[in-house]
Amino acid sequence: METQMAKKVILVTGGSGLVGNGIRIASERDPRDDEQFIFLSSKDADLTDKESTRKVFEKHQPTHVIHLAAKVGGLYGNMKANLEFFRINMAINDNVLSLAKEFKVEKVVSCLSTCIFPDKTTYPIDETMVHNGPPHTSNYGYSYAKRMIDVMNKGYNQQHGCKFTSVIPTNVFGPYDNFNLEESHVIPGLVHKLHVCTQENKPFTVWGTGKARRQFIYSVDLARLFLWVMRSYDEPDPIILSVAEEDEISIKEAAEAVARAYGFTGEWIYDTTRSDGQFKKTACNNKLRKYLPDFKFTPFDEAIKETCDWFSKNYPQNVRL
Ligand code: GFB
């Protein structure tokens, strides 16, 4: 007699955003019969409110949760609202994890970020360093709230045997991002500006000196890794999801890749009245490579081209501006 495979009901909070859409794309490209995804958007529920969050769990009865929902933003968005980033994310994370425990969810994978690591540190950064000192002043609100997810994961795991874990991506980019110039991260900001500069033949402005350095991961690659973590990674401790250290590039090099994608040959301006933020946050992906030695990341220029093409096709009506 054939045994009925227990269906995984996977609730993706923040399911309509950059990484959420990446997971939708990756799960459609690699479907499993025993998996059903529910992509939750902020329109469906206010996760800062416990009762609104409880209704989500009552309605969907998830067996697994991929927890992406958060108040996120780029350097300039964080710098002007650290308190809100802390309080809103603390409320969302406490509601989602406490209800996941109450509804006996089998596994929760939460999303952190390499900006949470200490600002004054040795490089490369690895998973053991999460709590080793204050994060960069530009985003302490977001960083401390995300660190507290790791603290809660440990508590739920030790006291209640909950399989709650987390991943730590580097700077993510791709389709369905927030392209609002003041609130966005660097790559969506550059894509938005270069689209307009190319259309209107205007000079292109990079904020800051362009010397800061970052490791960038394409949302669809991150999503493939998220599915692997949900399906196969069994540690409560976090794991960095990133390209290698040697793939770290300067903001100038990132801007050059976007300019290549648009064939922009106009004038460049560096607005050094704008902050560079953290100079670098070089992360080591040895733990990931121990598990997945052959994982192939999408070549950076190819991922940038796909992101620019998506933006040009959807601008302005279907883009978050
Ligand atoms: O992605 P981003 O805003 O945040 O990158 P962080 C900021 C870097 O890009 C700085 C330069 O060095 C900026 O000077 N930059 C150049 C620009 N042009 C632009 C532009 O048009 N827009 C933006 N936004 N930057 C964030 C954290 O830090 O990283 C968040 O604040 C989160 O909490 C995120 O963790 C992943 O990489 O500096």
From TrEMBL:
Domain NAD-dependent epimerase/dehydratase span(s) in chain numbering: 10-239
Annotated pathway: Nucleotide-sugar biosynthesis; GDP-L-fucose biosynthesis via de novo pathway; GDP-L-fucose from GDP-alpha-D-mannose: step 2/2
Annotated EC: 1.1.1.271
UniProt keyword list: Isomerase, NADP, Oxidoreductase
One Pfam family named in its UniProt record: Epimerase
Keyword Isomerase: yes
Function, as annotated: Catalyzes the two-step NADP-dependent conversion of GDP-4-dehydro-6-deoxy-D-mannose to GDP-fucose, involving an epimerase and a reductase reaction.
Family that this chain belongs to: Belongs to the NAD(P)-dependent epimerase/dehydratase family. Fucose synthase subfamily.
Protein name according to UniProt: GDP-L-fucose synthase
Record organism: Oikopleura dioica
Lineage of producing organism: Eukaryota, Metazoa, Chordata, Tunicata, Appendicularia
